[in-house]
Amino acid sequence: MATELSAQTRTLIKASLPALEAHGLAITRAMYARMFQNETIRDLFNQSHHGDAGSQPRALANAILAYARNIDDLVPMAAAVERIAQKHVGLQILPEHYPYVANALLGAIKEVLGDAATDEILAAWGEGYWFLADLLIAREGMLYNKLAAAEGGWRGWRDFTVAERRVESAIITSFVLKPADGGAVIRHRPGQYLTFWLEIPSQPPLKRNYSISSAPDGAAYRISVKREPLGVASNWLHDHAGPGTLLKVSPPAGEFFLPEHPDRPVVLLSGGVGLTPMASMLAAAAGGHPDVPVHYVHGTLDGSTHAMGAQVRELAASRPGITVTTFYEQPRPEDVAGRDYDRAGRIDVAWLRANTPLDQAHYFLCGPRPFLRDFVTGLTQAGVPGTRIHYEFFGPADELLAA
Q: How far apart (Å, rounded) are the C-alpha atoms in residues 398 and 70?
């Protein structure tokens, strides 16, 4: 494994920036088209991110650009590399899969750029790809070994049984999962997710990530799934998964989690189904961090879409120092302020500034992209440093070997 990129490679990659800026999306679309000709490789990926909207090819194009722009100093890419490695561990990406991506990427560059993709340019991008791939393979190997060696740990896909199904709202249902072999499970870090290999009739194998919504207990996991109107996986789970259903699951993964020993107040800020990792964090904080102030702030449409409200209130009542504020964007006539929700309308930064300790707290955010865009930007402009803003989003990430 190379310890650093050659000066010539860095120079050539930087020289290719204008071409990447102009044609990056075409390259990533062509890359995925090449990769997915192989069904084995296709089935490693979450195909919901590769539809007509092209969200994953666009995210990948942006990631390649970021890599090229930072090629002289890759330290700013460290967080992105960790996120990719965690996602790959969930998907069970292995070293033998990387050559397929390399061939597809280089072939796509040649296909799109034509004669401009000289042998020197392709060689530089080949070296650049494998430099990053080697970093990922090494980090992923460490994660695989750690997960396999942990108490309740495992490697690869493990059969879990749905032990309980619970309707949380009109659109969210929870599933409690226990190992089919009767063994223990890894105590996840609150905020992490599980990756599922779903085998649905008349569908190719589907890979999906769902946040764990329960506190770690070493015995079971709970996921809470929103029914998406066009979601093949979520609709199948809502319509067909019940007690006794077997599901293939890989070990908990993700770099978004509550610290083991929080040293500052914590604000858990969520929109819609983004509450799922927050529910895990809140339960863990209620049970194990009695001196840490916790502010749980959640926004949803109305009472019909509000999940886990009673559970959250019970956790808040279980110890001092937890405050809960729920926003209903459009309360129904039957939704009662002070009982079902606390404020009408949407959460905004002005409210956070007035009601949460901006100068002290760590902010954990989860929700749809517009929600995150507004609050990451708004909190930053309000003076919260990036080191105290942590977020998880649903959908494709800016990854070089993406899910």
A: 14
Query: Are residues 281 and 224 located together in one domain of the fold?
Result: no
Which of the following is catalytic: 32, 127, 129, 140?
140
Asked which of 223, 253, 283 is the last residue of a domain, the reply is 253
Please check whether residues 137 and 178 belong to one and the same domain.
Answer: no
Tokens of residue 26, six digits: 């075409």
pLDDT by residue (tens digit) across 273-292? 999 999 999 999 998 888 89
* Look-up of token digits 């967080």: 79
Q: pLDDT by residue (tens digit) across 325-377?
A: 999 999 999 999 999 999 999 999 999 999 999 999 999 999 998 999 999 99
Which segments of 114-212 does DSSP mark as H helices, in order?
119-149
Q: Which residues does residue 389 pair with via DSSP β-bridges, in sequence order? A: 363
Q: Which domain holds residue 219?
A: 158-253
Report the residue count for the chain: 403
Average pLDDT, the chain: 93
pTM reported for the whole predicted model: 0.92
Determine whether 296 is an active site residue: no
Our count of domains for the chain comes to 3
Residue in 32, 67, 98, 144 annotated catalytic: 98
Distances (CA, A) of 62 to 78, 313, 366, 389: 16, 41, 22, 22
Active site residue 363: no
